[in-house]
Design brief:
The protein is an alpha+beta fold. The chain is built from three helices and three strands, in the order H-E-H-H-E-E. The protein has a three-stranded antiparallel β-sheet with strand order 1-3-2. Helix 1 packs across helix 3. The relative contact order is 0.18.
Length: 79
């Protein structure tokens, strides 16, 4: 039996799960080390999550890559 796994979706879910279970801010290094996602898919996934509004970048490296991120907090008056 052949299953076509979508590893991009699987790794994005691993990243969102890891960030969601973290207290607040998460270093990208820890995401790479502990989320279970393939390290080559972490930065593209973080970019897509930021563009979708799910994630916000707290700190960036000198060339613009995220170094610390957190789940975007919904404000109570946002509707």
């Amino acid at each position: 039996m052949y299953f076509d796994m979508n590893y991009k979706i699987l790794d994005t879910q691993r990243i969102t799960d890891y960030i969601s279970t973290s207290s607040n801010e998460v270093s990208v290094e820890n995401i790479i080390l502990h989320s279970g996602a393939d390290k080559l898919r972490v930065y593209p996934a973080l970019f897509e999550l930021e563009q979708s509004g799910w994630l916000e970048v707290v700190e960036r490296e000198e060339l613009g890559a995220p170094s610390v991120v957190r789940k975007k907090q919904m404000k109570t008056n946002d509707r």
